Amino acid sequence: MIIGFICAGGVSRRPAVQRPLTIDHTARLIERVTRSYKAAALDQLILVLGHEAKRILQQIPLQGMKIVINAQYRMGLSSSFDCGLRFLPEECTAIVVGLGDMPLIEPETIDHLVETFKKSRKGIVYPTYNKQIGLPIVFDLKYRDELARLHGDAGPLTIVEQFHKDTKAVKVKTEAVVREISSCDEFEQVIGPVEQLVD
Description:
single chain, alpha/beta, Spore Coat Polysaccharide Biosynthesis Protein SpsA, Chain A, eight-stranded mixed beta sheet, 7 helices, 20% strand, globular
């Protein structure tokens, strides 16, 4: 069983932006991200929320995914791993780790990474775009403890670097795997006014 694992528990990882995302923007981003993961060939989806979780849940559809609330989200990205990994089912063999501020990922990209993982015999499969390591990243569940032991804002790339001999890079043609949306300006430039996405 391969599980989609989306970390969306914290506030922007670029706090110096002039126009930070509102809760409405954040909810729309997370909705788009979860839509792609639901459409991919994954067995289950876990969404980890934290900052303003209740308000976000009022705006996104909850069907087809397990919601985990990280009360310690202020401790950084790593706290979402520590919290969410506890809810993996026993049948889980691998997780596809993504972030809630990367809404341009397509289901086809996720599926391609998963298929490569199944064929490669490597424990970690990740995308690259213009020589940049991107997300989502597929982790064999043998790396569960390493992910749970991350500290602060350390993310999954730390594990990729640490165990590089057990990795497989997949070149992709879309910048979606490295494109984060961290401000209202970026949201409006890439996606449009938030009102256009409200159901």
